[in-house]
């Protein structure tokens, strides 16, 4: 193929293009905008771990080493007091222990705001 054939092929390709266009005019059309994601709705599907904390005790290493099978360690929570509900380790409310069939359950008595809808989109 010689230069004349190349020029002819190029002329054929450019035949339908109007004059006066720059490179921006020849660029591919912009992709359609993506639909906005509903972040609060997506977050509702994320699995979390819900735990009920009975209480805690601060002990020395010596006291820890002295603990035996029948040892009793007093906790900082009073008997009958609602226990702390935690989601992934973060306190979110209080609950009481109940029996649900053959398992323990929790009855919520206080709950902090878990409003996922308040997050910005």
- The CATH homologous superfamily is named SpoA-like
Number of strands: 4
Question: Which CATH first-tier class would you pick?
Answer: Mainly Beta
Mean pLDDT across the residues is 81
Assembly context of the chains: single chain
Evaluate the radius of gyration: 34 Å
β-strand percent reads 15-25%
* Helix-residue proportion: 10-25%
Number of structurally distinct domains: 1
Task: Report on the biggest sheet.
Answer: 4 strands, antiparallel
| Spatial strand arrangement across the major sheet | 1-2-3-4
CATH architecture type: Roll
Low-confidence stretches: none
Annotation field: number of helices: 4
Based on secondary structure, the structural category is alpha+beta
Task: Examine the coordinates and then state which fold CATH places here, giving the name of the CATH topology.
Answer: Surface presentation of antigens (SPOA)
The succession of helices and strands, N to C, reads HHHEHEEE
Overall geometric form: rod-shaped
Cα end-to-end separation: 59 Å
What do these coordinates show?
Helices cover 21% and strands 24% of the residues. It has helices at 3-13, 23-26, 39-43, 61-66, and strands spanning 50-53, 83-87, 90-100, 103-111. The protein is α+β, with helices and mostly antiparallel strands. The protein has four helices and four strands, in the order αααβαβββ. It is rod-shaped. A four-stranded antiparallel β-sheet has the order 1-2-3-4, with no helix packed on it. The protein starts with a helix and ends in a 10-residue tail after the last strand. The protein has a single domain, classed as Surface presentation of antigens (SPOA).
